[in-house]
Amino acid sequence: MPDVCANPASVDATLRLLQDGDYVAGRGLATMVFLSLRLSRPILLEGDAGVGKTEIANVLARVLGRRLVRLQCYEGLDAAAAVYEWNYAAQMIEVRLAQARGDIDRESLAKDVFSERFLIKRPLLHALEPGLAGAPVLLIDEVDRADAPFEAYLLELLSDYQITVPEIGTVVAREPPIVVVTSNRTREIHDALKRRCFYHWIGYPSAQRERAILRTKMPEIEKRLGDEIVAFIQELRQTDLSKRPGIGQTLAWASALVELDRVELDPETVSATLSVLLTGRGDAARAGRGVVGDIVAKVKAGTTQATP
User: Fold this and answer.
1) Who has the most CB within 10 Å: 18, 139, 243, 268?
2) CA nearest to 212, candidates 37, 71, 18, 12
3) CATH numeric code, 11-83+122-201
4) Can you name the residues that pair with 198 across neighbouring β-strands?
């Protein structure tokens, strides 16, 4: 079991805590994380895919020594997959055994088969259970992919850290979990959910922060190559792309270039590895060889304008 760490006592301590987990955060994000931990309130992180929203939950679980409970949202997600369901096979066996014994007290039998021993807990119920290291970190990932009715279902959990199971009653967390909700903003999240959370938008990092992230995650990379990678990515994000590369793509591309023994960028290698950065055919076509060559030349000339 990982070492248990107390919640940070200040924003500066939160910055150091995240840094201990190799997460380079701005002060705004660190402030929201600190307040979320201090006031036991969920935090809603919105932003484009790949900017580091999900990683916040992973880092908090790791550095605080907490169990991570993850709910990956998707269209059609319902309570049976996210909260609980009944073990119908076991319930049927219990009913038949009771019939065989001649025990046909319907009221008692109904209470028995709808007791907790027949309950199959899903992530949200597991998140209300305490652990040896304290309450877990609950990650509700990409809530915008779930349907609006499920979003409404979350309101009781996010406001009171409890879930109502009609057959049993209300299950209340003895200690509120640390809740991180993420959204890629594929649809608008309802205000009722936002009101129950601290909100923070995570944008693409500045060149300075992206260099710091790259140095933190890949300390072995040559400085020249790292600087050129960040300059190229920053410039590429300014082009007409349907999906701009995030931090994950930056790190994956850097790893690929290191594996290819490159110490600096060249148009041929960039063109050959562009699919690591751009996952859509249209984006790859828009960032064709001519565009790649122009950006590489701009990087080499040292005239790339970093994102402020």
Assistant:
1) 139
2) 18
3) 3.40.50.300
4) 43
